[in-house]
Structure to design on (245 residues):
């Protein structure tokens, strides 16, 4: 990603509606679908500036790596953890350690070879371990936001499932999320295109807007594992080793 994207992420990810609510979605997924064992070994692959590390550290023993030097330093200072240098798909540190959970949170879309990435992470799972992946949804939602974040693609449930199954991994659960705000996002992006505005989608809104957007997005955590929504701005998959069922 561009340097200013990492700097902005560090400044706002504690309070921005999208980051804050996504942490609640991740927490609900880990608690209700994955059901972590006590003292779980957890790896975050591509931890960015470390916004998810406190959440993960409350659930088990956490390792993390990040490609970008500046983001890695910020994440280490923020979390108190030693964040290793690493890159996907071929430079994953901490070998030969394996994990109960590998978090890949809005990272896969940044990697040109997504299939090789999933295959490499699959090799680092314990028996019964899971990869939890979140990615942006729907190619038709492609915008300048994707370009500034150096995305290679956006996904559907089918394309993410295909990427995993093509390397022998099993998608145990897959669902769209950030669904309630999809009409708002479509409207905002259409307005930006119409008026040729270039402000990033991840800039921090005013509190009067940020708070209700966080609450609306976060409310979807109550549906996880219970109701599957037909569309959303993001896709989440829980992936394991084993034959595709």
């Amino acid at each position: 990603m561009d340097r200013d994207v990492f700097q902005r992420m560090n400044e706002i990810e504690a309070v921005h509606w999208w980051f804050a609510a996504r942490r609640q979605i991740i927490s609900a997924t880990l608690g209700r679908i994955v059901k972590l064992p006590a003292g779980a070994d957890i790896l975050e692959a591509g931890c960015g500036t470390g916004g998810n590390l406190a959440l993960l550290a409350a659930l088990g023993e956490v390792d993390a790596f990040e490609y970008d030097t500046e983001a890695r330093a910020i994440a280490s200072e923020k979390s108190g953890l030693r964040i290793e240098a690493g890159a996907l798909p071929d430079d994953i540190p901490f070998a030969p350690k394996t994990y109960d959970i590998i978090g890949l949170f809005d990272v896969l879309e940044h990697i040109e070879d997504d299939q090789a990435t999933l295959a490499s992470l699959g090799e680092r799972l314990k028996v019964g371990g899971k990869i939890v992946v979140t990615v942006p949804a729907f190619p038709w939602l492609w915008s300048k936001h994707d370009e500034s974040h150096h995305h290679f693609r956006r996904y559907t449930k089918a394309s993410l499932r295909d990427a995993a199954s093509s390397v022998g991994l099993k998608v145990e659960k897959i669902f769209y999320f950030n669904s309630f705000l999809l009409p708002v996002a479509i409207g905002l992006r259409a307005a930006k295109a119409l008026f040729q505005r270039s402000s990033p989608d991840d800039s921090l809104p005013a509190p009067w807007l940020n708070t209700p957007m966080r609450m609306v997005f976060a409310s979807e955590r109550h549906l996880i594992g219970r109701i599957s929504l037909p569309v959303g701005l993001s896709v989440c998959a829980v992936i394991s080793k084993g034959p595709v069922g």
In short: The longest strand covers residues 125-136.
